[in-house]
Amino acid sequence: MSLLTAENLALIFGGLTALSILLYAILDGYDLGVGITLPMANEPWRDTAIASIGPFWDANETWLVLAVGLLLVAFPAAHSAILHALYLPAALLLLGLILRGVAFDFRAKVKASRKTRWDYTFKAGSVLATFSQGFMLGIYVMGLEYTSGSIIFACFSGFCVTAAYAMIGNAWLIGKTSGELQLHAIRQCKIAGVLTLSGILAVSTINPLVNANALQVWTEPPMAYLYAAIPLLCFAMFIIGYLALKRLPLPQDHGAWLPFAICNIIFICSFLGLALSFYPFVVPNQLTLYQAASSRESLLIIFWGAVVVIPVIIGYTALAYYAFRGKADGLKYY
Amino acid sequence: MLDTLILSRIQFAANISFHILFPTITIALGWLLFYFKVRFDISKHPVWMRAYRFWVKVFALTFALGVVSGITMSFQFGTNWPGFMESIGNIAGPLLAYEILTAFFLEATMLGIMLFGFHKVPRWVHSLATFLVALGTTFSAFWILVLNSWMQTPAGFEMIDGVAHATDWWAIIFNPSFPYRFIHMLLASGLTVCFLVAGISAYRLLKGDNKKAPKLTLKTALLSAAILAPTQVLVGDFHGLNTLEHQPQKIAAMEGIWHTEKGAPLVLFAIPDEETQQNRFAIEIPKLASLILTHDANGELKGLNEFEGEHPPVAPVFYSFRVMVGMGMLMLLMAWWGSYQLLRKKNLAPLQLKVLVGMTFSGWVATLAGWYVTEIGRQPYLVYGVLKTRDAVTTVPGEHVAMTLTMYLLLYVVLLVAYIKTLFWLANRAVEVEEYDLTRPGLVENRSQPLQDNSPDTRTGAAL
């Protein structure tokens, strides 16, 4: 009990919030990515692609609710400062998520003649939600300020996140589909991978230039040597991933999940890189985790709940993924 | 004139009004689906599966709308009402966190299994997933109504430098108005679903659907409504007494009592006039309000004059209350009339079917009206006696709020029209197509679970 001081609790909840954001980016990242590159020319492909994410998208999106919720309950001052600055892009994010989410169901239930309309809505919603997330990230990196420079950077960040989600989305499809659609996903994944790599390179260059805290983290020995492993691992993954994509598909579908695993590592590295650049700040250069945290007794109540419940959530989530293992071609919707 | 405060209030009201439409359906519809599934598991009769298959589609669509409109809410606290969390975050935070942890993940994950897993998991796992989805929606209702009730009747806390700190979580969760509000809302959800199911089923029958499933669902819905409706009247009465004890000015606004009086009449209808502080064109029943609320014909009821500057705007609370009660009475009458006819003559008359189609969304009207009574009735407070609404609002420029408000309103109108059209389109399609058609060759069910009885009607009599 004595370990659970206000400081440690702030750190734990900072970690939990970060974990939720990372899980959100990976999990909703792949299903938004499927939406971003939804093949509008081929309806059976669209049905399979959307069926592959059908059982999961709702739970994936819940990680966003948890991330925003944890920020809200554990760091209320940061929640209002960040969302205050991101008011309009957050509204566009919500618009995108709403359109994408309802299109899932409407496309399967409306008259056949209206289905394509909802498929376009699905794609547009996915793109809007993703771009808004990237834009919000960009503004956050630039210290939550709107200047012409920061807006250009945020738009660029929007494109990068769109590319990254498209990459992981197609990596998911490689694992979940077969035949022509799988080949299509391999091609898309390569293109998105190249775009993502250039995006990560650009952001890694700009971030230390505008962010004194980040510059210090990445250049000050001895920890900087250790941290250097993160970008090295990340870039190695891009190379291995590209080589793997060139050889896929293999007989018996060997290695079909390798691109998705590699994308996961890339996402984790990129996220760790960003998190290290900002720690201990939760609002860049203004508010640290420790200053923004809620009262100790309220955090304790949530902490014990989370300790009990999160393993259960991970357990039944794993069961759901196990139940829907294998290719999505035959998945039927009731 | 339209400043950030009023625009934020309209936006929050629009978001939460749109959002509550869908959970109101999914809470009870989840349990109804579980009932269909259990009946199917026990009897193996395909009609229960047909009922399940049709209504699970409605559930999925409704759930999706509920989820996406709910995400908006979690952002709104920070974007538009930062003062809310700054002041009572220590109470609201854990409650919201528990809702996400115990309800949202459970229902979202299990929904995937429920919708896609029929052939992927063992039958009992599918039934369990259906149960857990229903349980998740109910947990969600539990936590959010704890928070809402706490905002109406706060308890178990102390204020230190303008910030609420929890002292007794048991008192916070089971605050004075929570049990009444929670049960009232669960029953509202039950009645909303009864009339939705009855309305859509009646529509199918009117369209010439002579399959067994719509008759079965119509009967289930009407008989349930016949029990739930009078229970709701009783619970609503207890809830009103509880409100009188803790928020007397809300009751004064609901009943249109301007000045404290003994033997107050029940105002059936009137036009409340805020300026002259009286009711115009009032139709009243003498002494009845006192009798209902104090159980004494000459009991004293406090008037709005005792709460100068601390009471809600009268007209919206007054009218909403009458809409809610009026709709509730209509539902009670229709449920009893329909059930009587069903039990006596086995079939409803065409007129009754048409009335039921007209009342498909009557639950929405009553539920929204009820929420307007309790939420507007809490004004000018956001947290009764603790935090005023105007002190919690954001400093985001009014134009930005106006832009997002316009966006939401347009979106909600489009989605609502699409939702209602899709429900009736699903009903029309169900008239033509047989769900779970066991005569179709190559059906997975035929291979794994041979059922000799393929005609929908032979065994239904026993199953009902």
Structure description:
The complex is a heterodimer of chains A (334) and B (464). Chain A is mostly helical and 334 residues long. Chain A is built from 14 helices and 2 strands, in the order ααααααααααααββαα. In chain A, a hairpin with a 3-residue loop joins strand 1 (281-283) and strand 2. Chain B has 464 residues and is mainly α. Chain B is built from 15 helices and 8 strands. In chain B, the strands form 4 sheets. A two-stranded antiparallel sheet of chain B has the order 1-2. Chain B is globular and about 70 Å long. The chains are: A mainly alpha (334), B mainly alpha (464). At the A-B interface, helix 3, helix 4, helix 5 and helix 14 of A face helix 2, helix 3, strand 2 and helix 13 of B.
User: What's the overall average pLDDT of chain B, rounded?
Assistant: 86
- Unreliable residue runs of chain B: 441-464
Strand order in the sheet with the most strands of chain B: 1-2
- Percentage of residues in helical conformation of chain B: 55-70%
Number of strands of chain B: 8
Question: What oligomeric assembly is this protein in?
Answer: heterodimer
Beta-strand residue fraction of chain A: under 5%
Distance between the termini of chain A: 48 Å
Identify the most extensive interface between protein chains: A-B, 62 and 68 residues
Largest beta-sheet characterization of chain B = 2 strands, antiparallel
Estimate what percentage of residues of chain B fall within beta strands: 5-15%
